[in-house]
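Q: A reviewer asked whether we had any structural model of the full assembly, not just the individual parts. We don't, so I'm hoping you can provide one. Inputs are below.
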Amino acid sequence: MIRRVSGEQWLAIGIILIGLIMAWQISDIPVDAGYAGIGPRFFPSLVVTGLIVAGGALLMQRRHRNGPDTIIEEGESDSDELEAEEAVNHEADWRMFAIVSGSLLCHMALIGIVGFTLAGTLLCFGVCRGLETRRPWLDLGLSFVLALGLFHLFKTLGLNLPALIAGVL
Amino acid sequence: MESLNALFSLGFATALTPTNLLWALLGCTLGTAIGVLPGVGPAVTVALLLPVTQSVDPTGALIMLAGVYYGAMFGGSTTSILLNTPGEAGSIVSALEGNKMAKAGRAGPALSTAAIGSFVAGSIATVLLTVLAPVIANFALQLGPVETCALMLMTFAAVSAVLGNSPLKGITSLFLGLGLGLIGIESQSGQSRFTFGLLPLIDGIDIVVVAMGLFAIGETLYTATYENKIKIGLESMKGRFWMTKDDWKRSWKPWLRGTAIGFPFGTLPAGGTEMPTFLSYSAERKLADGETKKQFGKGAIEGVAGPEAANNAAVTGTLVPLLTLGIPTSATAAIMLSAFQQYNIVPGPLLFDTNPELVWGLIASLYIGNVMLLVLNLPLVGLWVQFLKVPRPLLYGGIVVLATMGAYALRQSWFDLMLLYLIGVMGFLMRRFDFPVVPLVVGLIVGPMAEKHFRRAMSISQGDLTVFVTHPISLVILLTTVAILVVPPLLKRRQALLQEA
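A: Here is a predicted structure for the entire assembly that you could use as a starting point for your response.
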């Protein structure tokens, strides 16, 4: 019977992939025997091995039910576990994840163009939307005040932040 | 005696200058203010405020950050008691009993015993730090690369196997951190590793970006995705504020016991405050008798006094390995270490000789900070409670703006913002699947140091790996490491077999 892959197992696959990409990159590190034969490739090789083994162990691990200490017995159905996991997934609001992520990516793209204050205002407001604010206009205003306040505070402390209008915004 | 001389002649002379007093006060105030916010623990508070210290001299900056660290610990108890939302693992137990006390109209005594207990524990632990740190630093001078490397291996084993529910997840998290730590130029050979040809990765990934990504961005993404519907109720400060005579009588012994449990745990590389607070709680529960025993689970003051003291004593304890060996044993200590590195100061046994004013000034500021925090937390608790009324969306919005600003300010680069987001997504996934983040942070910062010491050890021994078992101190450390890895699963198995029988 084909078993369904749980979220945690997808994560384990991701960890193994990271390990494999790193393993591929090790060949790009110039060979240098170093002291006593321990060169710059030695430690990365250990870490890559660790990542692949740990990811593999996570992947092979039987899914847990009722907390990580309870292991499903051999031959027992793990459908309850999948149902429980799906219940959690159903509760996940991916639209909100997208709003917060989008706000962060917009902030990254805009900070050099519109300056810290405006990019920060949009980011703060976006996060407020992502957390289902019930008073959007007030939060937009407060986001601006917060970003402007932080801009001037950190400017005073000597931090160089990009501004749309130098020294003001 | 030498320690006391150094503390008074160098330490207090440095810490009591008007500028440094101001930095300590600013650190304590900001630490309490941010630490009191729900979901914001000391690690993220110190990381968020790290950029503030960029233009400050090293002594002032570290005094301020120590104040932030302590302040966040004090502030965390307010959130746990009034909101039942612990900002970090060490405050979970305070939330258990403290919130029940608040619900029963005894929020004031719960907050008072937490604040006074934290003060007592912090002060005693600082005395122990003063006495022990130079002794351990002297001992550490005898440790060579072999022993230091073994010690770091023990740190890895302890933080990954002991923290969290699953040692496998802890080890995976550790390897992820070690992997991130490899990115950039390797210090001994000068070779670049895992940079994918990207120039911004040559300098490696900054611990501030990682800490803020994991804690601030990851937490915000998690809250937006999974916890939007959860309503949090703030308990009001009704009833009398001060502790009664009976409360004092029931609190002083737990304060002392909590300190005795917390400090040694902080000094061990077993990762922070979670375990000593639980141990203190269970000790208080076992020691309670009659009526008091019945109160446990319903709001026993001993259940707040002991764990809060253990919590703060452990925090001070983490400074012992940090200052004397240069090894961070918690996420916050790792961020503190990066603050030292920001100024090219290397914590370790030589710190007491190379930067005596800084290190003794820092220790003296802990005494001063403790007093400041007691004053800030007892009469002004009403002010901090107002911070709990900040709407959650705006709170997280502010945290994310501060985090992005901290990441951007490092190099004025959008690349760091992208890294911040990617690490945030990683933090989100780790939170979702219950992976501990402390091993990752410790792996990131201690990994490159361990590699350096390992290569030195190998060059001294001409590639002979047996050097790790022929050196007696290293052998003892490695045997302890094996015990850390092997004993807990064996005990668990034995317990399971006994239960089956």
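A: Points you may want to mention in the reply: Chain A touches chain B through 76 residues (CB under 8 Å). Chain A has a mean pLDDT of 82.
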